[in-house]
Write a structure and sequence with these properties.
By secondary structure, the protein is mostly helical. 91% of the residues lie in helices and 0% in strands.
């Protein structure tokens, strides 16, 4: 069980790093709205964080 929790925590941390990187790359909400690939990536990583933290 401990390994499973550690794996989930690492996955959450990795997704947070990706979200931060993408958000910083876009600089503004207007750019976020225009860049659908980055938008999808950020949203998907937030979903993964939610799913990993729920279990």
């Amino acid at each position: 069980m401990e390994n499973k929790n550690l794996f989930r925590l690492r996955r959450i941390r990795y997704c947070i790093v990706k979200v931060e990187y993408l958000a910083n790359k876009l600089h503004s909400y207007n750019n976020f709205e225009k860049q659908w690939v980055e938008q999808d990536a950020i949203i998907r990583n937030l979903e993964i964080i939610c799913e990993a933290s729920y279990k």
